[in-house]
Each structure stands twice: as structure tokens, then as C-alpha cells.
Here is the input.
Amino acid sequence: MTAPAPAADAARRRTPPAPPARARRRLPFSAWHLLLAPLSLGFALPLVWLVLSSVMTNAEINRFPPSLWPSGVDLGGYDYVLGNAMFPRWFANSSVVAVTAVLSNLVLGSLGGYAFARMRFAGSRLVLGLMLATMVIPFQLTMIPTFLVMKELGLIDTLGALIVPSLVTPFAVFLFRQFFLALPRELEEAAWIDGCSRLRVLYSVVLPLARPALATVAVLTFLTTWNDLTWPLIAINHDTQYTLQLGLTTFQGQHHNRWSAIMAGNVITVLPVLVAFLFAQKTFIQSLTSSGLKG
Amino acid sequence: MPPRPRADHRTGPGRTGPERAPRRTPSRTPRPLTLNPRHDGPGHRHPSAPTPRRPRTLAGRTRRENATAWAFISPSVLIILGLSIVPVVWSLLLSFRADDLVTPGRWVGLDNYRALVRDPGFRTAVENTLVYAGLYVPLSLAGGLVLALALNRRIRLIDLYRTLIFVPFVISAAAQGVLFFFILDPQFGVANSLLHHLGVSRQGFLSDPGQALYLLVAISLWSGVGFCVVVYLAALQDVPQELIESARLDGANRLRVLWHIKLPSLMPVTVFLLLWELITALQVFDLIYVTTKGGPLGSTTVIVYFVWEQAFQMFTAGYGAAAAYVLAAALLVTGTALRLYRRRRPGAAPDGAVR
Here is the structure.
């Protein structure tokens, strides 16, 4: 495709090679659209159907073959879910758990991460090693005794049982530590010299610089706590304490043919994550890939 | 000790000192340049006896540093270690007991493990898990790679395409399960409706023991492949552009660039994704709980579902804990093997340049 003459190369190597393919195109747009457009729409289709069916009437859904497009926007499903079922309560429960987990991971994770990154103290290496080791323990191994621990603490069937285990994760501590290690020390030293305590240094100098780490921990903590089903399923029995995921699952089991209401509840369940994702897409993706590539 | 002396050197004499040991700094840096007009007044300084005091201050500072550090980490230590080390040991003890979590149990030694080996239900769960992981892991990696290569170009709407392919990843497994249970409902589901329009007869889908597990793999791929895509896309940005350009100039075509430069650079990320997706696949639970509850006829009972059922439905927690330990051992072995593999070939590719 390119000229074989090596002498000419040296000069050309500096300039970015203009892709010759572009000149050959006949289509007014890249041929890749023909592949990517249907493919990506295919990925979105189940979610489109989720929204469409949530505004259909049950009569439209409960027939064979069901309609593929709503005849109008019917909010009966949303009415039912918000009025008769406990979705507002579950939404509040999920929010309490997720927001507490996010805030606490930011505070405790940055405190721990800062100590491990900047301070020398007895036992630091041992404790850090142990914490890292716990990251590979699968949840299934710990879920039965964690249930027993929560029962001992009298937290089973309360939101506390959901909050306590998610207060801080080794991931948050480790991510903050890695981030702080990469920050130059000089910035903090200036503050020490002015007589600031460690805590002041952390909150007024280090954390304002650590926005990417804060965002990553916040995003991933929110995503995992909001979306979790396994642990609420084990720790919660009474429907006043359900999270949205557990409530949606139970609601589906109890209302077999109220599909539009189930889908309305499903929309409510995924909406916060979806909105957060669409508004902070870059942060989401950077969080996931950075945590991934370091792993 | 360690940060302080370096600080003295680096921040320069003019700004050193007054924080914790204002007295010793001036004597240690005798250069005349030390004087800084806006520095604190001389009233603060104690030029006397700098050297003999140092060890004591140091010890005091170390003690104070220790206390502060432990105050910083103790909440995390308490929660993380308390809710992992304790349960891991407890779980091991449980696995040697017959325990229903309510009444006091009794010690049964290795009986739970012996029973597991003979339990056809557990064997089915292991087989189902292996089939699920054996399909999900390679397909998610291959699909993610192909999609990432296709999406790795600057054309209009590319951000939209990327978003649409990734968005299912943020949907919870419970929501996915409820949605696909509806879509795949044999009677009222839209899937059968579409097949009907195409002239295909009605399918049982998740109620068909022959199809359910494969459909669950497909649902997981729908949501899970986006993660592989974004990780591969990020890694593709890191493939050194000069390498590609010079290969192109040397006459390599696209396919050879892909094969000899891009794919080798993606090796480390691929090993990471392999490990990640394997762990995800071996631990699948939520989706199955919501859609099939392990059925029909046990065709989608996976190991975690088995553990959960034993512990919290059948109240044979000791037995469930033993099954969990078998799963954990499997995860540990695969994880260690992959890690060793990765460590053994640190530079399998031009990846030294990648990061």
C-alpha cells in the first residue's frame, strides 16, 4: 500500500500518513455505519422495549401476539407502582443505603488510603497486605457467616445490615492509596510547614486534588450498592426494608400479569443509574477502565 | 523521619521549618540564603540545644504519627477485616458442622465434603457453572475485542454507538432478569411475537430446560460485553501510534498491524479481562434468581445458587459453606494460575511501551 522506497520514508515518517482509503470511499458516510448502527441499536432494543411496555395497557400486552408499539402513553402502570405498591419506600431505602455507602467510602477510604500512602506506622505493611488479600475472597464464602454476624448485631431485617458491610471496601482504600502515592509530596509539605494537622492536610490540600479518585470510588460504590440483589435478599425479610432490586424482584413474582406495572417499576429501578450514567458517562467509563487496568 | 529530611532539602532553606521543629532547622542549614523576609519572626526560634532534643522529638513524633495513622485506618480495618477474615474462618468451621443457623449444630468432620462429592445436585451445579463460564468468558472477550476494534475509529456518531453498546452494563442483574423474563415470556413475550411474525413456532425459552442456560449466557453477554469493550478501547488508545505508523510505512497491511502490533499489545489487558470475567461468571447468581430460580428441572442451578439454596432455603448451612469452599478453592486456583502466567511473561509483547 505504501511506497517501498526506504529513502523517502525518513522524511515522511514525521508527517502523519494520510489514510489513502478515505479518497476511495464512494459512500457519503463511512461504511462502518452500516455495521455499527444496527448493532448498537440492537443493544438498545431491550431497553427501548422496557420503556415502551411500561406505558402500554395490560390489554395491549396480554394478548398474543402482543402489540409492538403502544397505542398511546398509558401511565396506569406507574400509577399502580407508585400508589398501591411500596416502590416509593423501596426507592427511599435504596437511596439511603447507596448514599450512605458512597459518603462513607469516600471518607473512610480516603482516610485509610492517606495513612497507607503517606504515613509510616507500626503494622502498616501487614494490615495493607491483609486488606488486599480480602479483595480476592469471593462473597459466597463470607455471606453465610456475615449473615450470622449481622444477626448477632441485631441488624438483620434493617437497613443497617445493608449499610454496615458496604461502609468501606478494600477497593476504595487501595484506590485512594494508589492515587495519593502518585501525587507530589511537596504540595502537602507546604501545608505541614504552616502547621496543619494530618487531617487538615488531607481535607484541604490532598482531597481537592483527588477528584478523579473521589469520582471513581463514588461511581463504583453507587453502582454496586444500588444494583446489588444477593445481599439484600439474604439480610432482609420484611417488605418495608426492601431495596428497589429486591422489591422489583418480589413484585414481579407476586403480580404475574401486570406487566406494564412491573415494567414501570423496572424503569424506576434503573432510572437513577441510567441518568447518572448518561450525565457522567466519561467518569463512569474512566472509573471502570482505570480500576480495571490497574487490577 | 523519612519525609522530613528530604523536605528540608527540596523545599529550600527559605521555607523550612517552623512546623514541629522550628529550633533545629536554622542550625542545620547554615547557608545565608535562609533568610526569607516574610518568614516567621525570630521570636519563635530557640537556637539553643538543637541536637540533643532530636531523638526525643522524633520518638514522640513517631508515637503521635502511629496514633494518627491508626485512627485513620481503624474504621476500615475493623469493617474490612472484621467482615472478611472472621467470616472466612467461621465459614470453614461451619463447613465441618451440621448447622441450620438456628439450633446449635454439631461437628461432623469432612462429612459435608464427602456428601458433596456424591450429591448429583451439586454435580449438576458444577456442570452448569462450567458450561455457563465456558461460553460466557470466551464470548465476552472475543465479542468485546471485535466490537472495540470496530468502535476504535473517529467517525460521526461513534460516541452514540459506544454509549448504546455499553449502557446495558450499568443495568442491575435484577432489572435485566425482570426485563428478559418478560421479553422471553412464552405467552406474552415480545420474542415469541417476533418469531411468530417470522413464521417460527412458539418457543419455551426460559421454561425450556434445553434453552434456559444458553439464554442466560446471552443475557449476560448483552450486559457484560460492554465492559470488555471499554477496557479494550482504553487499551487500544495506548497502543503506541508510532509503532503502527512505522509498520504501515514498512508495508504492513491492516490485518498484519492488527495481528503483530495491536493484539500483542492487548495481551496484558486480555489476561486481566479473562480473570475478571471468569470470576464474574463463576459467581453468577442474581440473574438466575430473578429469572429461572435454578430451574427448569435444575438446568440453570449454578454453584452460588446451590450455596444460597442450601444455606437459606434448606437450612443446611454447613453443607452450603462446604460448597462455597469448593467454589472458593476453584477460584483461588484459577486466579493464582493466571497470575503466575501473567508474571512469568511480563513482556510478552511491546507492552513495556504500552503503559
In short: The mean pLDDT of chain A is 85. Residues 87-118 of chain A form the longest helix (32 residues). Chain A touches chain B through 112 residues (CB under 8 Å).
